[in-house]
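Reviewers of the previous submission asked for a worked example of the structure-prediction workflow described in the proposal, so we include one complete record here. The input consisted solely of the amino acid sequence. No template or homolog information was supplied to the procedure at any stage.
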Amino acid sequence: MVASPESKYAGALKDKVVIVTGAASGMGKLLVERLVGFGAQVMLVDVNPEVESMSAAFNAEREKATWWAVCDLQKAGGIQEYFDQAVEHFGHVDIVVNNAGIINSASLFSQPDHTDLERVMRINLIAPMEGTRVAVRYFKETGRQGVVLNTGSISGLTPLSFLETYGTSKAAVLYFTASCKDLAPQVRVNAVAPYYVETPFIKGSAVIDQYPMLLKIGVLKPERVVNAMLRALCDKSLAGDTLVITDGNKDERLKIYDDLALQVSSRLAGGLVSSAISFVGSLVSSMARGAIDLTRRRS
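From that input alone, the workflow returned the following structure tokens.
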């Protein structure tokens, strides 16, 4: 169950206190296993009460390796509660991984009301933003250095019908992460944007029914994504960055926000406001085309 600590990330993560949401399954569960294997202490957070038995199993192998909290991220104050529990139990927090997420149950335009829209946005977008806010306030108040990792998705870069709500929430997570760049070096906030991953999250959703070609093209193994997550946590050169994870061995650093800021700033500095506005429009179009090309290359 516990990964071997023989890894280039082991030294950087040993004795770190890490909060992981969505810890009961999929990438979150695998990440927890890797972190515990590296000697970290991990707070397991999930709406699934199985995190209690998971924590007990880890602690049977190494005393005080983990603690747990059952939390519905839609609950007001829930994020602050589990953060405070982690500090109380472990003494401090070093890293927060906002990994929990859900997918919309059906296309936005086939739903009778906004219930599903609100649920997806609260868990996929508001919770990572609130989790980051709580973490950053803590790091600033205590003077500690810290890392926050947000789980995005290729869906935030590749618009697909049926996934309007999910994709929009993930696109916003990537934008939010880029907006946190200036918090470094005290707090590094990064994100990962994986292609579709072989987890119960995808296999148990309606995505495969809508897009059966995904299975034919192939989906990523969770291990591939977790390796990128570990890099985002440990690579000190990354701040406000998103690692795009496809089928290759190299994680591509997303640069669209850097390019946007540079080009718009240069045009505004030259007094070319209309040119800057026009550039933003053309860049957004090229971003969409480039993201679609990522998917086409996989096929």
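Confidence is low (pLDDT under 50) at residues 1-6. We consider this example representative of the routine output the project will generate in years two and three.
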